[in-house]
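Why predict the complex rather than its parts? Because the way molecules touch one another can change local conformation, and only a joint prediction can capture that. The input here totals 892 residues.
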Amino acid sequence: MGTEAAFLAPVIPAIAFALILITGRRLPGIAPYLALAAIVASFVVWIVVFLAFLDDGAGTRSIEWFTVGGFEFTWGTTVDEISLVMLGVVSFVAIGIQIYSLEYLRDEPRLWWYFAVQSLFAAAMMTLVLADNLLLLYLGWELVGLGSYLLIGFWWERRPAAEAAKKAFITTRIGDVALLIGFVLLFRATGTFDISDITQLAHAGTIDETQLKWALIFIFGGAAGKSAQIPLHVWLPDAMEGPTPVSALIHAATMVVAGVYLVVRLFPIYNMVPDALDLIAVIGLLTALLAGVMALAMTDLKRILAYSTISHLGFMMLAVGAGFPGVAMFHLLAHAFAKASLFLGAGSISHGTGETDIREMGGLWRKMPFTTVAFWIGALSLAGLPLLSGFFSKDEILLAVHTGRLNDGFLVVTFVAIAFSVLYTGRMLYRVFLGQLLSSNDDAHEPGIRMWAPVGVFALLAAVLGAAAFEWSHNYLGFVSWVTDSEEGFHINAAITGASVVIVVVGLYLTWLIYVQRRISATVISRRLGFVAIAAERKFYFDEVYQWGINQLVLPTARLTAFIDRAWVNDIGVDGPGKTTRWGGGVLRYIQTGMVYNYALGMVIGAVVLGVIWWSV
Amino acid sequence: MLELVHFQILSAALFSIGIFGVLARRSAVLVLISIEIMLNAVNVNLVGIAAFSDRAADVRVFGQILVVFIITIAAAEIGLALAIVLRVFRNRGSANVDELNVMKW
Amino acid sequence: MTAQLVVFYLLGAITVLSSLGVVLTRNVVHAAFMLLVALLAVAGIFLVAVAEFLALAQILIYGGAVTVVVLFAIMLTRTDDQPRADHSQRPLAALAAIGVFALLVVAFVASDVANLESATGVATDAETGFENLALGLFTDWAIPFEMASLVLLVALIGAIMLARNVEDGE
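Output of the joint prediction:
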């Protein structure tokens, strides 16, 4: 079994999905274990494929699906460094999530459906990352969107959850339309959907630049939707209405990074159009900064984590825009495990205290020490505390911005964004875990092993994965160069690294002063900042603007369309012939006078007319 | 000189008169009588053709043979038709065609 | 103006006038008798065209049987109030009849059938003749002849069935 067996990874969960659908209602008990078995099998496939890859190198495999007019649609898999990283992350994190869900959703009556969709999602995500052609990728893309919708709206009886699911789907749909346009434009420019063919054409430099530019811009639109970049980020915070394991899996570690994955995959052609990379970098940095500011203003723990996710996705895009897709992948890896452990930890906290508002928390380290440690590791990793994995990935990002194709202005703003990430992290950690324990949280407790174990494992990985950044041998020059197959080894710029460490220390100390020692008042600061603070709290009014747009533009258009459909298409077009025929019949029936002589007259006159016509012709 | 066209014009006249009778008369019996006139018009025409045609004699006589058949069928038809009229008269109390309008809208 | 033509015109006039009487008179019985006159005049026309057998058949069948049947029918379908003999369609019917007449006349006059006439006028006795009629009816047209008699039989039975009074158990 070599790299060709990779296709099993998505296929097995797909089979599990089908099986669970069939048996779910009648045998709800086996559904979780079917799903779990499938995802473990996928992980095993990953191990096998990875080992085969180390021996044999990259490989592809494709099967023809159907042919339309000389064009062939194929199911295919591509196994290389990028897809292997993604596949490993997806399958491993999914295992942890599903085990966690067994405990977290223990009393849920619709558990079988939850695990069915989890399997569907896993299959779709793996299809996406393994896809060797853009159409298959799009198929997986859409299906993960469906899985996200179904899982966000898992508790659809709750109005906010249903609304959030709709919002997620519609927002990413806008991105998906752009994505499809982009793919079609790319097809027009290159003549193929096959990714490796496109890459080869890119290296040969034979693609038309203008067509390519527009294709790439649209494709990035799709990536921005899925990866919650400004301005299509609005769905991710609302997606927190779904169960917490869902947030951990889909909205932290896997689905939202699909956009990053896509631009990394297509980096060879993005590299040909500097304007596109500029766009990615600008959007990414803007997202990183604004989301970081908004995270500082949130009071719901999961919302803080959501905005943090958006911010880190921005950092990943920034790395791509700087010309370093490998750095983006590294941060993706570090962020995935750290965020997964953070979300699961948040789930443990809400499970143990019944709270999600950080104003109702405090001093939880006394009651939930394990969760505290794991949470701190994950959070500080993402804040960039030295020697945790996030420190190395953030450092790589800074290096990329400094040495890459972007100018120094970007570097300055990046530092600012990093500063904010430290600030909101400190605020979150101190408010939730330190300080006084509220009496309402007296009975807070650690959850069962099925919940704390995944949290711990992910936190551990978040801690140690930084080691992957280093050069360990001749063949392995560091994670970044391994992923992109480049010759550049791992190195450190002392000034930049030093600056980032300083930011981390200062930020953590500052928030210590504000939230633990209460020497500086947060309310005074926010009053001083006045309008900016209010805007941040209101999430910079994105939702309000969009709602206005919907109310003023979309809904009137919809009403007009509905009117046209009802009045013209239905009443006139469809009912019209029927009603006209009936009316005509109602008029014509008076010809049937019942008097035979009337009919005879008609016959005679008709015969005479015919005779005249025939005679004259 | 007597020519075929005389017979034909007579036939046309009788036929038209018959049509007028069919379309204008109220009593069913009168309508049937008018039909008889029409049939006789046809017979006149056929006999004329039989008399004036310049084909061989045994072919020409077909006109008269046809008249035989027409007379036969006309007789059969009027017998049957009048029986029907009697029936209708008994069921509906009237033999006037403008009072027999059940199959109307 | 041969004698033939004069006789033809005379008989033709009688036929047309009596037919007009049939369709125009108010009295139904008068109409029946005018029919009889018209039919007998047609028999005369048959004689002019040297179709003696047909003239005979016409007198016997039409003059005899048909007129009697019609008179019986008139007798059996009389109602006391007969205010009108014609109905509202009368003008249109006249129009239609005139239209038919015009069409037919034009067709007859303009068509080539007129050229079929023999130069010698009406065929003489020896050329049409009773013999040929009989030969034709019993050889070439024997089957239609038999069928015609069958039709008569069926019509007879049908008429009897239709016209009888319904009695119980029959």
